[in-house]
Request: fold
Amino acid sequence: KNILLQTENTVSSKASTAVLNLVKEAAKRLGIDITTITKEDGRKMGENGFANAFAKLVGVVEGMDATTLPEEVMHVVVALLKQKNPSLYKKMLADITDYVLYREVLAEYGKLKNYQLANGKPDIVKIKEEAIAKLLVEMLIKENDLSLEKPEKLAKTKSLWSEFVQWFNTFLDKLGLDYKKQLLNTFDKTSATSIL
Reply:
């Protein structure tokens, strides 16, 4: 029940090599184990990857790193956010339902047993967490270009993104200054509005 997935139908944008390398380094420093899933096993499961935040474990189908790994690692980061900054987590949880992305995730994931309650209804909190991770990854990869969203939603997203980055920067202080500087440089390069 604690497993979050990336289905074959909901692939994230492709991360650059620089972003992908930083995601791998962040995963290493956060103690997240990354495992590779064979393409055949991925097809059997109908997924490109998974994240188990409690076990700090992510799995990615071979060859799908650039489109899957950032999202799966972000699921673990969202779980950390939930623990370390519950007020920002709750704000994101409340706001995510206004996004087109949320409705797409609800339509796709609400049918999956792993995203349903015992009574067969969608686990809305889990679906919201899925959508939050996807939105944060898109903000990082696409330089704030969420063209399906309304302009007022994009402004709110940038504000939430800024709060998230501020929290994450504080969290990264514990990982070491050199790494934080490297990550901040990448955020500056990927953020069209330089919201840091």
